[in-house]
């Protein structure tokens, strides 16, 4: 299945205060976490998330484990929501009834879907535009 042509590439900032180390760079006492992803829209509010580095799609299995997939499938589709605080959250569409979010711990490791919930900083991402340079 090929997503529709609406794609955007950007940097995503993870909203953790201190100690985030996933390819982050220190600025004072705060670690800034930036990683480049490509989002492809399946329809309004439904996206595939692809790593520009590995070319793999983010997916969530039946246990809520995040993994990289070479092929698009129903485990790769996420519901994108802009929150009131202007951060984005991503819920697995396949497991939307369980409210399993994409989440990263302070150490940069992924959180299991069942251990995520609304209100956690681990699920908040801020898309930033990437210049053409």
UniProtKB/TrEMBL annotation:
Entry keyword set: Developmental protein, Differentiation, Mitogen
Key word Glycoprotein present: no
Matching SUPFAM superfamilies: Cytokine
InterPro entries recorded: Fibroblast_GF_fam, IL1/FGF
Pfam families: FGF (PF00167)
UniProt keyword annotation of Cell cycle present: no
Biological processes per GO annotation: cell differentiation; positive regulation of cell division
Gene3D superfamilies documented for this protein: 2.80.10.50
GO molecular function, one term: growth factor activity
Family statement: Belongs to the heparin-binding growth factors family.
Name of the protein in its database record: Fibroblast growth factor
Originating organism: Anas zonorhyncha
């Amino acid at each position: 299945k090929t997503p529709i042509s609406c794609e955007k590439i950007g940097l995503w900032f993870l909203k953790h205060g201190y100690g985030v180390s996933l390819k982050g760079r220190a600025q004072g006492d705060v670690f800034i976490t930036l990683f480049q992803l490509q989002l492809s829209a399946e329809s309004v509010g439904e996206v595939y998330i692809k790593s520009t580095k590995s070319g793999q799609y983010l997916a969530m299995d039946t246990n809520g484990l995040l993994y990289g997939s070479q092929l698009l499938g129903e485990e790769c589709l996420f519901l994108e929501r802009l929150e009131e605080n202007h951060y984005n959250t991503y819920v697995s569409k396949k497991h939307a009834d369980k409210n399993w979010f994409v989440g990263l711990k302070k150490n940069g490791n992924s959180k299991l879907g069942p251990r995520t919930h609304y209100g956690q900083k681990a699920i908040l991402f801020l898309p930033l535009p990437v210049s053409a340079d």
